[in-house]
Amino acid sequence: MNGIEHALEYWYPIAMHNELSNGQTRRARLLEKELLLSGGANDSLTVTCNERPLALQSAFDHWWVTLSENPLPLFTIPEADEAERRFVPCGVVRVACSPLRAVENFLDIAHFPFVHTDVLGAEPHTEVYKYDVKIDESKDEVIASNIRFYQPQAAKSAEGGIETEYIYRVPAPMVAILYKTCPQKADAMDVIALFVQPLDEQTCDVWPWMALYDDTSTMADLIQFQQLIFLQDRSILENQIPRKLPLDPGLEIPTRADLTSISYRRWLKKRGAYYGALENC
Amino acid sequence: MTTQPVGLSIDLAPQQVMRAIDGQYDMAVWRSTSGVVSAWENRCPHRGMRLSYGFVRGESLACAYHGWHYSCEGYCHYIPAHPELTPPKTVRPVLYSVVEQSGLIWVNTEQDAMPVALPDDLQPVRSLVIECDLATAVQALDTRQPHGGVESLSDTPKIITFETGGISQGAVVAIQQSQPNRLIVHMLVQSAVTAKDKIALSRLIESVRRQAESACNEAT
Q1: Which of A235, B60, B73, B188 could potentially form a cystine with B69 if both were Cys, beta carbons 3.0 to 4.6 Å apart?
Q2: How much is the ipTM here?
Q3: In the predicted model, is pLDDT for residue B190 greater than 60?
């Protein structure tokens, strides 16, 4: 059980837009394959694997590549079309963990007071209230909603602590999208996504991306805020044992707060998304 | 399985946590506020986080990831995400037998820890890592003896008394075989030696390390 055939069916982020200038090249790794990226004229990009050009598409300020001849369609984020949002590609962070562990950690809120202390959470506000998780049958996505959590500094634009509402979407095994209370616009939600590029089953490159309502923060500050958060997460992700994600509850005991994680693991198992998952667990 | 010395007692203060590796066993060793030492499998049963990154509160070790609190008996008694919940008794890491004796923390991962009997009145000098195999390290120690070969008190773990020339009382070296080519050498000294003598011993064991590691590098 390795699941690489299943993993090959998807699109993966490989670079940010405008990252490579005309004539510039860079090596990359995806699902244990070595790729060569070459920047072209007018911000174009070519990606090859053993000199074979791969299918590419542009979405959410990133280039997406697939190794499949007949890939599944790329998921959608309708908010990416809302022109008044700030779109923030946050760069890339290499993490020595399973790509599935990186996604699961992003779906977890109970760690905020301990890992993102005084930013996304703080004691004594540790309780995770009852929330809802379902599988959206039409899109085949995991959806977690009605999540509320007290946050001392929910976003760069937040002034003081607020109770934040969260909604999560998992549209593909290695993508998680979060909708959260926007501190500056009461009727809208900020979007923060985690696009994961699996290098192999135990190493990934993570590309965070945001679509925010924030007129005041500089781009550098927005990126720095997100990088601070993700580097705190990395200190956890690189110290979870085993490095691959167990899908059955025998090895890792969940509690009610882990409802999203439980559904994510079941959803992975049901669709055979075993790449990055622990064998027989 | 032998009882291994995993550290000097003095290096694990109350409310501290350290990591110890013994072959394939990865451990979190921690001391509670009141002084109780525990050695556990280094993995939180909830989401697999290494407990050696955790923090001590009172008589509990809390995991760095979600703050689950474990008592000295290993039972999880507090899950911050659900403050009212009584966690099931099954939420418990594997506990290893641990004993403090002669200024050392001794752990056995498979049965009751039985420390090697050492001279009374030992006081700690230091621990240091030597990246080489055991035979090479012992050989390097041997060359520093003014009057012939090292005297073994125990072979597994390797514990030797060690004459030190200028220092009238001998030192004791307890060698933890953490991994095949990674030794952790805990040095103690008998009786009331001066701080200056301890510094001399510390320099001496560093020079043993240089000799052993370069002999090991030449061999490979």
Answers
A1: B60
A2: 0.96
A3: yes
